[in-house]
What we know:
Transmembrane segments: 33-53, 74-99, 111-131, 143-167, 179-199
Order of helices and strands: HHHHHHHHEEHHH
Strand order of the largest sheet: 1-2
Largest sheet: 2 strands, antiparallel
Family: Belongs to the reaction center PufL/M/PsbA/D family.
Number of strands: 2
Number of helices: 11
Protein name: Photosystem II protein D1
Subcellular location: Plastid membrane
GO molecular function, one term: chlorophyll binding
Shape: flat
Amino acid sequence: MYFNTGRIHINQLSNHSRDFMGYLSSARLNHSMMIHTLLTATSVFIIAFIDACPADIDGIREPFSRFLLYENNIISGAIIPTSAAIAPVRSATTIFLIYPIGQANFSDGMPLGISCTFNFMIVFQAEYNILMHPFHMLGVARVFDGSLFSATYDAHGCFGLLIFQYASFNKSRSLHFFLAARPVLGIWFTALGISTMAFNLNCFNFNQSVLDSQCRVINTWADIINRANLSMKVMHERNANNFPLDLAAIEPHLQMDKILT
Length: 261
């Protein structure tokens, strides 16, 4: 009798859980949750556009504000960026939590707002040269792959005729998983690259100049990016002494030989 009552309780729990899951997946609940979520997001969006707390970006006790009530126009108004609002949890956690913890200063994190976001991106590029990081390159490639495959969505069934037999997708689920997995993996790799930069692990970068057998610099696009980073760093930190990386990489006796000759 004890086992029968236990089985009855288990069946009742399974029925309740099945009803609860059916209620969560019902169209009526989804519509109501969508309305409440959109209203909340719209309200927060408008409040942040009109009035929000200024952010101390550089940590020098000079608040940086881009809001309408602080005598700014609509173009420079600090709107919560859509990319940050719909980004995966991994990248948002990296930008807002892991990077400030690695730098031991929460003023180094990215504030909400269009102007603050672009300021954070430019300063991050100037400090770490994230464009030459392989994880960032892999992330950008995966996101562009997802965009390309999504644009050619209708032609995926014909890829077997155009390329080779196994290039086409026989099931829609495998195709949809492929379209969703590539950009998600790319964003994860980009977040991993930023996480390594948070703890100043900059050894994976391809920011070294290419030298020939006589230690002469072979000009590449990487050198142009390095000089652009140096100029951005000088504009951001005017009181700091920023020595060029291409001069710092050359031995002192080679510099003296160039001066004497």
